[in-house]
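Sequence only, no structure available. Ideas?
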Amino acid sequence: MTTSAERPTRPLASKPAGYVELARYSSLGRLWAMLGSAVREGRSVSLVRGDGADTCRRRIAGAALQNAAIFLDTARILKELEDAFVPHPALVAILAGDPQPLRTEVNAHYELRVDFVLALTARRDLIVRPEFRFAPIVRGLSDLPDDVPLEPRRLGRDELHLLVQRACGLA
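Reply:
I predicted one. Tokens follow.
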């Protein structure tokens, strides 16, 4: 294991803003298992800026999910299209109430990058701050306008937990 994936022992004092609770009454062993499994899956495990090596918080990056348009925030896209509309068949369809052409386009040309910060608090809560984003599989293949906000929707705790476990190779 790399230095950043070694076994940290100092939990965070409290849950910082922007984090979601994955599990209560968790343990250092569970955090260590997830970090070790992430390394074995080939994920990048690194320290969060400002943290010491003993702090129980790590950024895990490098996982991607294909065919993830189900996680697309269509409400945000609709809001953006109200302000400025760029003609594209998938965007015209979503304005007409049919999100399927846009989801098909996203599934064909984009992947969901599943990066996140995983931490353990002093209250033994396993917490996560998702840093998910859609990114083109190959730049230039999609003809969607660049200013369309392809953002993931707000995910529930169970969905987040499953994506984190899959990224760590545990599900």
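The longest strand covers residues 110-120.
Hope that gets you unstuck.
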